Fold this sequence. Notes:
Blueprint: H1 2-26, H2 33-44, H3 48-55, H4 61-70, E1 73-74, H5 75-95, H6 100-119, E2 122-123
Parallel strand pairs: 1-2
Helix pairs in contact: 1-2, 2-3, 5-6
Amino acid sequence: MRKKIKKYLLIFLGSLFVILGVIGALLPIMPTTPFLLLALACFANSSPRFHARLLNNRWFGGDLRQWEQNRSIARRAKIKAMMLIIFTFAVSIGILHGRTQLQLGLLFLGSILLVFIWRLKEAESISFKDVTIK
Length: 134
């Protein structure tokens, strides 16, 4: 009984994370990749079918497969993520004009995120077209 509850809870959470990841792809304020990685982890432990569907996704599948296999990120994706962080945090800091403590807090948080992404293992894009995941 506990296994079934855990399985359905992980499927629910994975689905929620996919929805949040898609919203993040449309809104520059929310991140996409962390939510999709969480969804991938949830599905890996609960539903091989959903896990495979996420890995074979036309838009996100390649990066997710690369992360799952090598724990690395393509240079292009890394630069894109860093530019997005810089842009969104700069806009947020600009909106908070006159609130120095909040601006410094955002600057600190953005810097931590940039350092974290900078330190991720980097790999060139790998073609996964010939890989079949079941």
